Design the sequence.
């Protein structure tokens, strides 16, 4: 399976799978301009935060099929209504798309947020970021796991002693720790599978 992590973190998120799938487009316009979108057929948006979706980038993807949750659609309807085909996803429904199937699932964040389970014939892929709890993830095994690993629990505990980081530490609890991410991967990644940690904090990973 070909993939490229264009960006992952609070500064922006964008990942390409199988050459023609884009997950999130929350990167700066100058960085998005460097991405070859000519092969992109399908765009999946996890949630409405600006590091995951930007109007300037969505405008350039309106001829593709775009998959979003209801909250994201409502917040970006002025742009998304101009799209050729925009699908508002239903959680746990099976979507047959091209040569793969996709099932969206909901994870806890401070806005409605989806993760995605992709199945390509015999290849299974989990993609999930900006989630608080690994219990929200499907109890399956995967060939590829793209999963948030935002912060190190011990670094957060240490930082919590400093008033300077009070709000920053509180915000981290909307995200999955490195320890919880690795624990999930240990139980759900197939032998010889590939794990990519996502959304790593610059300060606390």
Sequence:
């Amino acid at each position: 399976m070909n993939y490229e992590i264009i960006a992952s973190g609070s500064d922006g998120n964008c990942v390409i799978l199988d050459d023609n799938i884009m997950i999130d487009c929350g990167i700066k316009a100058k960085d998005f301009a460097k991405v070859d979108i000519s092969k992109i057929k399908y765009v999946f948006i996890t949630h409405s935060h600006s590091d995951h979706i930007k109007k300037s980038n969505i405008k350039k993807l309106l001829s593709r099929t775009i998959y979003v949750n209801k909250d994201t659609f409502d917040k970006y309807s002025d742009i998304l209504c101009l799209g050729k085909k925009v699908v508002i996803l239903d959680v746990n429904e099976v979507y047959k798309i091209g040569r793969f199937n996709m099932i969206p699932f909901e994870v806890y964040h401070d806005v409605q947020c989806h993760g995605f389970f992709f199945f390509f014939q015999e290849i299974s892929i989990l993609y999930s970021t900006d989630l608080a709890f690994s219990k929200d993830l499907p109890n399956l095994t995967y060939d590829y796991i793209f999963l948030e690993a935002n912060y190190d629990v011990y670094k957060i505990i240490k930082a919590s002693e400093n008033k300077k980081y009070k709000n920053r530490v509180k915000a981290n609890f909307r995200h999955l720790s490195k320890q919880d991410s690795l624990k999930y991967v240990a139980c759900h990644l197939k032998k010889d599978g590939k794990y990519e940690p996502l959304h790593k904090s610059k300060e606390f990973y």
Observations:
- The first helix runs from residue 29 to 32.
- The chain has a mean pLDDT of 94.
- Residues 62 and 83 are 4 Å apart (CA to CA).
- The first strand starts at residue 3 and ends at 7.
